[in-house]
Amino acid sequence: MSDKKLDRFIVFEGLDGSGKSTQARMLARHLAAQGASVHLTAEPTERAIGRLVRQALRRDFCTDSRALALLYAADRSDHLSDPEDGILAHLSRGGTVISDRYFYSSLAYQGVSEDEGFLRTINDYPHPETVVFIDTDVRLCLERIDSRGSGRELFEKEDYLRRVRDNFLRILTTLPPSVRLVRVDGAASAEEIFSTLLSQISG
Fold first, then answer.
1. Which InterPro entries match (predicted)?
2. Structural domains of the chain ordered from first start
3. Does 19 count as an annotated binding residue?
4. Which of 22, 14, 19 is nearest to 169 (CA)?
5. Per the annotation, does 14 bind a ligand?
6. pTM, whole model, 2 decimals?
């Protein structure tokens, strides 16, 4: 896997219900208020391939784990390289890009059932400058998911998410030294989490 790093690219990772999406939005607002040009994005995307991934997560159609992993990787390639709205395009214009999920999620989630070597091969993409991992207890994540009232998606089961968390913790120890890892406890209030996050990113 490539050790190439993209400056001004910040990725938020964590379990579903961890609070990462909220923190990504808060950081984007904070940086924009300071005058930065910020592009907030997420994976799966809302583009054509990303919509297929989201349909699979909702169980709108059946597919096997390897096909789903390939869909994620294809969506990510499109997400990076689109000449107008892709991550690389925004970075080339001098902006900061914040993404809610990146290829670490594929390694953690699909890694429960798929070979990690295969996943790393199809996700040979550049690393971000910073990875923010919101580490939240699995049961708390599921409580938050259930409180949304929209039902659980494909991977949102306690035993599965515990294995995903273990994968995240292991994968994040393998980051290249040039990538900054910020790990924050997701059990506190959104404001407390953001205060801790900001102090670590600014430090």
1. P-loop_NTPase, Thymidylate_kin-like_dom, Thymidylate_kin_CS, Thymidylate_kinase
2. 5-202 (3.40.50.300)
3. yes
4. 14
5. yes
6. 0.93
